[in-house]
Amino acid sequence: MSEITAPKSPVTAEQFADEIREQLKYAQGVTVEQATPADVYVAAAVAVRHHLMDSWMQTQHDMVNGTTKAVGYLSAEFLMGKQLRNALLNAGLTEQYNAAIESLGFNLQDVVDTEYEPGLGNGGLGRLAACFIDSLASLGVPAFGYGIQYKYGIFKQEFDKDGKQVETPDYWLANEEPWGHIDYNRSQKVSFGGKVVKEGGKKVWKPAWSVRAVPVDYMVPGYASGRVNTLRLWSAKAEDEFDLLTFNRSEYLSAVKPQVKAENISKILYPEDSTKEGKQLRLEQQYFFVSASLHDAIRVFYPGESKPDLTTLPDKIVFQLNDTHPVIGIPELMRILIDEYGYDWDTAWSITNKTFNYTCHTLLPEALEVWPADLIGELLPRHLEIIEKINEQFEAELKAKGVGAVTIKDMAIYTGDSVRMAYLATYGGSHVNGVAELHSQLLKDVTLKNFSDVYPDKFTNVTNGVTPRRFIKLANPRLSDLITEGLGTDKWLSDLELLKGLEPLAADDEFVRKFAAVKQANKVDFANYAKREYGFDLDPDTMFNTMVKRLHEYKRQALKILALIARYADIKSGKLSADDVMPRTVIFGAKAAPGYYLAKMTIQLINNVARVVNNDPDVKGKLNVYFPWNYNVRLAQHLIPATDLDEQISQAGKEASGTGNMKFALNGAMTVGTLDGANVEIRERVGAENFFLFGMTVDEVDKLYADGYGPRKYYEADPRLKAAIDMVADGTFSNGNKDTYAPLVSDWLSKDWFMTLADFHAYTAIQSEIEALYAQPLEWNRKALINVANSGYFSSDRSISDYLERIWHTGPLPALA
Ligand code: 26W
User: Is the dihedral of CA 731, 732, 734, 735 positive or negative?
Assistant: First the structure.
């Protein structure tokens, strides 16, 4: 079934075992007998890379020498997850690997478990980038992912004895990392600071200091495409490592200062995922990887040319700006074209405009980056000049289009003391897109309304997607086999809309029972995994109800925990008799940005509700809450296939899209959710009768804001809500300490910006509908199967096809011979 994608001689398990044995000996100096699972993991990874090398080189060659425009995906985050299994699947080497590892006398899982998950991202945006580069390679489209090789990824989360989040450094490079190839010979110089002088009538930037950007290249093998793209992550190194003179003056620390200053740039990922971080180092990071990437693209597509004709650049590569984080790339390309290659402003502008496109991933005003002008002026003085000139040109253009002075002021990219990166991206690029239909509409109607009025053709939508290779085939092999059995082909893995063929089988009780058995077996697996990894005792015969995503007030984990407390109180008070309670296991997963006070308090509350509920004999077997720490891609791959009910309960108009919602629907979970982000499109496609909808719509939310929202009214009016909040306030979940959650309770009763209290009644009301259906397993699984059958649209392959058609206007390389 699996074909070798690498145009390299097919490899047998024996040959693969030999290659691993050879690698262990000549590169790692150990015999098979001496080798540890970690040694074998490295050797196997290298062997897979060797098998992909031909395709990698072939893809590079065809990209540079062909006429197919490439895609450059600029992202400050790539949340790739563990690599070995994915590389084996996409390279078509899984069987050979399994047989080879066993023949060498090792346990498959032991070897896979030694891989450390690279956490070079916070959440949705970073994972989307990873799914997108998998789809670009699987569709055979030539592409580069360009980002930062952080030494420390997203922090490791632990919980202390009070259930509080504790962050520890994620030193993922502590062990050998076999996938990244450090290419010192293709480093780029990136400069900072200094001043701009006039020389011969031309503006010349005299930077104060510079660093070396060293590329670390990762192969991105496509599934069944025979193509292998590149993820190029930049690592900062000092130009001159060490100041010996200072050292000899025994000023040891200042001798290494330049090195530390340089390497600081790619030291650590900023753990904020929706609150702008105005720190200089963050801007240094953004400029560092974008400048290195633009220079690298010119090196790659104009090999050996000192005076390349860069007017052709937009025909060779189109760049996608993954949110505002890489937008400094627009003035940087202008600087490169004008200062380094001598192009005039207008030529440079038309090249730049055609080269860039911007994807917005948020609706939260606080997440839209606005950089203080003096910070840009100090770090990038030439860029501030160029931004000012872009803004002048922009305002002149708006005036010429008859836009009013007030609106022009509102639309200003440069306000005199700050630079609005979303506005710069919208004017500086040729397309702007949101990540779900509702989000893209709100961008046009609200967030970027003025721009949409003036440049309507720039605005489009591309609804997010997820890769079926990692999130179905790798995460849920049982379901994958059942799908292939039901459809009679495994072509669905590269054409996910084929899942539609499963719909008729929803009427076949036999098949639905097989589907239910898959879910049950996955739940048993997860219960064993949770026992092994967390010491939790989950009962697979209860409903597994999951809420996993970053901790943020707009995502409303508070709504989930308050409804859970209300249910606990109902059972405790006997209002709900034990036998009419549907046994439920609620599983949370969430990291909070370290500086996000209320988010961290919510984590503490969830952990303490879990402690109290799980140890209360009155609700034993009826309600359990678990919060596995350090939610990451690995945990997601274990938990999503085992979930019956997924929570997508954000306030309408706040979640740009969501991608977890897609992963759960594709893995046969039912969703309870609001009309927000991509939930709207999921419900449209799976059918309203197969989706548990509740809560206010965007319009109802806007009306309530306009009318003035008083959360306390809801607290007074709903006794179950009042009881739940009072239990949080009265120390029930803090060993009697009434102050522990006081800030949270007072926020709920005085502000509650995301209207948790207003949607509480609707949310608790729908639970009975959910439990009524869950009490009919066949009907529940029939509807869950229909969710799977109708979620093929949410493949990242489809998203990429939309980008190719609507924004990038390019496609796959010619098929391999
Ligand atoms: C400046 C700090 C910062 C860092 C990251 C601000 C904003 C971000 C990201 C845009 C936040 C993010 O991950 N957004 C999520 O992007 C997903 C992929 O498009 C969407 O599915 C989620 O709805 C959105 O919250």
Answer: positive
Q: In the structure, what pLDDT confidence band is assigned to residue 576 with cuts at 50, 70 and 90?
A: confident
Residue among 73, 75, 78, 125 to mutate when testing ligand 1 (max atoms within 8 A of CB): 125
Pocket, ligand 1, Cβ cutoff 6 A: 122-125, 128, 272-277, 323, 361-362, 367, 369, 435, 464, 655-659, 677
Q: Is the pLDDT of residue 648 over 80?
A: yes
Query: pLDDT of 486-525, one tens digit each?
Result: 999 999 999 999 999 999 999 999 999 999 999 999 999 9
Residue 817 clears pLDDT 80, i.e. is over it: no
Ligand 1 pocket mutation, candidates 127, 128, 132, 273, criterion most atoms within 8 A of CB: 273
Q: Is 5 a catalytic residue?
A: no
Query: CA 180, CA 267: separation in Å to the nearest integer?
Result: 17
Q: Quick check: is 489 catalytic?
A: no
Whether 583 contacts 542, CB under 8 Å: yes
> Which two structure tokens, joined as six digits, stand for 2?
């699996």
Q: How confident is the model at residue 256 (pLDDT cuts 50, 70, 90)?
A: confident
Cα angle 439-442-443, degrees, rounded to a multiple of 5: 85
Token pair for residue 67? 């006429």
In whole angstroms, what separates CA 36 from the centre of its chain?
33
Encode pLDDT of 308-334 as tens digits.
Answer: 999 999 999 999 999 999 999 999 999
Fill in the DSSP letter of residue 185: G
Please give the helix or strand (H or E) that residue 376 lies within, else none: helix 373-379
Is 26 a residue whose pLDDT tops 90? yes
Of 49, 420, 473, 663, catalytic: 663
How far apart (Å, rounded) are the C-alpha atoms in residues 317 and 370? 28
Ligand 1 atom closest to the CA of 677, numbered from 1: 23
**String of DSSP letters for 512-539:** HHHHHHHHHHHHHHHHHHHHHHH-----
CA of 361 to the centre of ligand 1 (A): 5
**Cβ atoms within 10 A of the Cβ of 417, count?**
9
Q: Which helix (H) or strand (E) holds 777?
A: helix 777-789
Q: Residues in the chain, how many?
A: 817
User: If pLDDT is split at 50, 70 and 90, which confidence band does 298 have?
Assistant: very high
CATH class of 518-773: alpha beta
Under 8 Å between Cβ of 429 and 353 = yes
Strand partners, 626: 587
Which one, of 498, 501, 502, lies nearest residue 515 by Cα? 502
Each domain of the chain, given as residue ranges in start order, spans 518-773
Per the model's pLDDT, the better-predicted residue between 301 and 276 turns out to be 301
For 170-181, b/e burial (b = at least 16 CB within 10 A) is bebbeeebbbbe
Question: Could you tell me if 372 and 417 are in contact, meaning their C-beta atoms sit under 8 angstroms apart?
Answer: yes
CA atoms within 13 A of residue 512's CA, in its CB half-sphere:
19
Sign of the dihedral defined by the CA atoms of residues 104, 110, 114, 120, in that order: positive
161 noted as active-site residue:
no
Cα Rg for the chain, rounded, in angstroms?
A: 27
- For residue 138, pLDDT over 80 is answered with yes
Residues 432/459, Cβ–Cβ less than 8 Å: yes
**581 and 571 in contact (C-beta within 8 Å)?**
yes
Residue 274 Cα to ligand 1 midpoint, Å, equals 6
Closest CA to 188 of 145, 154, 234: 234
- With CA atoms as reference, report the closest residue to 130 among 572, 734, 632: 632
Which tens digit of pLDDT belongs to each residue from 715-759? 999 999 999 999 999 999 999 999 999 999 999 999 999 999 999
- Span 98-105, average pLDDT: 97
CA distance 410 to 429: 19
Please report the pLDDT score of residue 245 as a whole number: 85
- Report how far residue 25's alpha carbon sits from residue 31's, in angstroms, rounded to the nearest whole number: 6
Phi, psi (5° rounding) for residue 248?
-65, -25
